[in-house]
């Protein structure tokens, strides 16, 4: 059995042990999903080597979620356009754009910009403490 299969088996065993949600929790979850319908988030981050990582998540009618993303490399033909769209200048720059579908058009609702100045202390995204210390 591969490590991936063992991880999946552990995840499934954990999920089976979780209690069923109450009717109130089920209703609250459905309301949160409904509120997210017609929304999208785009997160772009310039990496140390100048690549731009873009992650896009959207929610459509019925609570369907779509995830996608791409990496723009400096030598790619669309790199400058991607860099300008997200207004990224230096490694560590990150922009998150929240959009809402209004009359079949995506409309920007808000933008957030962050700038990481010391990339040497940054933890890899999704890494756990014990993985970082190795």
Number of helices: 4
Order of helices and strands: HHEEEHEEH
Query: How many runs of DSSP E, i.e. beta strands?
Result: 5
| Helical coverage, percent range | 25-40%
Instruction: Please state roughly what percent of the residues sit in beta strands, choosing from under 5%, 5-15%, 15-25%, 25-35%, 35-45% or over 45%.
Output: 25-35%
Distance between the termini: 25 Å
**Protein structure class:** alpha+beta
Order of strands in the sheet with the most strands?
Answer: 3-2-1-4-5
Rounded radius of gyration (Å): 19 Å
Uncertain residue segments? 126-134
Described by the principal axes of the CA atoms, the overall outline is extended
Short description:
With 134 residues, this protein is of the alpha+beta class. The chain is built from 4 helices and 5 strands; from the N terminus they run ααβββαββα.
């Amino acid at each position: 059995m591969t490590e991936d299969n063992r991880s999946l088996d552990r995840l499934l065993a954990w999920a089976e042990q979780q209690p069923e949600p109450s009717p109130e929790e089920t209703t609250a979850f459905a309301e949160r999903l409904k509120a997210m319908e017609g929304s999208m988030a785009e997160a772009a981050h310039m990496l140390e080597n100048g690549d731009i990582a873009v992650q896009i998540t959207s929610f459509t009618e019925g609570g369907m979620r779509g995830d996608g993303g791409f990496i723009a490399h400096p030598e790619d033909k669309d790199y400058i356009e991607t860099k300008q769209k997200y207004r990224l200048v230096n490694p560590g720059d990150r922009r998150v754009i929240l959009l809402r579908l209004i009359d079949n058009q995506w409309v920007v609702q808000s933008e957030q910009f962050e700038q990481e100045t010391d990339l040497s202390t940054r933890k890899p995204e999704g890494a756990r403490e014990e993985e970082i210390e190795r």
